[in-house]
Amino acid sequence: MYLCGMMTDREKALSGQWYNPATDAELREKMKHTQALLYDYNRLHPSDSEGRDALIRQILGQVGEECCILQPFLCDYGVNISVGHHFFMNKGCQILDGGHVTFGNNIFVGPMCGFHTAIHPFDVEQRNRGEERAEPIRVGNNVWIGAQVCVLPGVTIGDNSVIGAGSVVSRDIPAGVVAVGNPCRVLRKL
After folding, report:
1. The CATH number of domain 9-189 is 2.160.10.10
2. Measured between alpha carbons, how far is 180 from 89 in angstroms, rounded to an integer?
3. Which intervals of the chain form a coiled coil (predicted)?
4. Closest of 45, 165, 40 to residue 109, by C-alpha
5. pLDDT class for 9, splitting at 50, 70, 90?
6. CA angle at residue 171 from 155 to 88, to 5 degrees?
7. Each residue of 40-97: pLDDT tens digit?
């Protein structure tokens, strides 16, 4: 129970309410800490897989066995990101994790992909105050996401699906399909 019904901005973000990341000291400090770790991570020698593994486990909230995220990699907080076993993410990807981003097992993510949980208000005054909301992104097991895919807030991608390169995923994708396009639509069942 929250004192007088007050929630921190981090709690608001994770519950899908409007919050302001710029005015919350906890969020600012967490982002600053994560950005410092990412600075080190992105400057590791490409052959230093042990160093990469150790740092990514400090950055992300949960990491399964055999996780490989190629540099450069960007995220906001890291703590809201969970990856399962046998996870591969190619270079140049970013995860804006104001909300939870969850990846299952056996995931392949192509280069230059973006996962964005933030929703900005249409109301000009609210937007100018820096407010935003976050909706979680969920990626099931055995999913392949092609190069330069953009996954938007609130999306779930079902197990055993393939998302074609360059797609903009703005709504849920069912399990066991190939989906492509802008907006991303089911092309066929697998």
Report:
1. yes
2. 19
3. none
4. 165
5. confident
6. 45
7. 999 999 899 999 999 999 999 999 999 999 999 999 999 999 999 999 999 999 999 9
Q: What is the pLDDT of residues 105-150, one digit of tens each?
A: 999 999 999 999 999 999 999 999 999 999 999 999 999 999 999 9
User: For the chain, how big is the Rg over CA atoms in Å?
Assistant: 17
End-to-end CA distance of the chain: 46
- Strand pairing category for 133-134 and 118-119: antiparallel
DSSP state, 70? P
Query: Among all residues, which ones are annotated catalytic?
Result: 120
